[in-house]
Amino acid sequence: SLEQPGDCLALHSPTGFIDVRLRQPITIDAVTLEHSDSLVAYDTHSAPKDFGIFGWLSNTKKSKAPKSMMPLGNFSYSVDLGAVQTFDVEAPRVVDHVRLFVKNNHGHKGWTCVYRFRVHGTPV
After folding, report:
1. What 8-state DSSP symbol labels residue 46?
2. Mind listing the pLDDT tens digit for each residue in 35-77?
3. Backbone angles phi, psi at 108, to 5 degrees
């Protein structure tokens, strides 16, 4: 569904991370990050800007991120390129957990809003 402006997962600073446990292991090949469209957003300064993706394979439901997380890429989200942006993972790996690590946002000091984060790949 289309989220209303302000109906997001708010990281309570310009940086932070979100861990996602996947239903099954996949060979990850891309991720999609979404913020509210700039035509309807109250403020695009809370949109993520620079972010990294990490992954790991644990095969347990309660796994915490291990020290050996694999870096899967560093990317930049631009509010000028549309609300939904997909980023290719250059070196696909098998993972069942993914971390979105937001390094900074577009200038908001209080929080960063993530409207949707999707992981794309092929089941193993």
Report:
1. G
2. 887 666 667 889 999 999 999 998 666 666 677 799 999 999 9
3. -75, 130
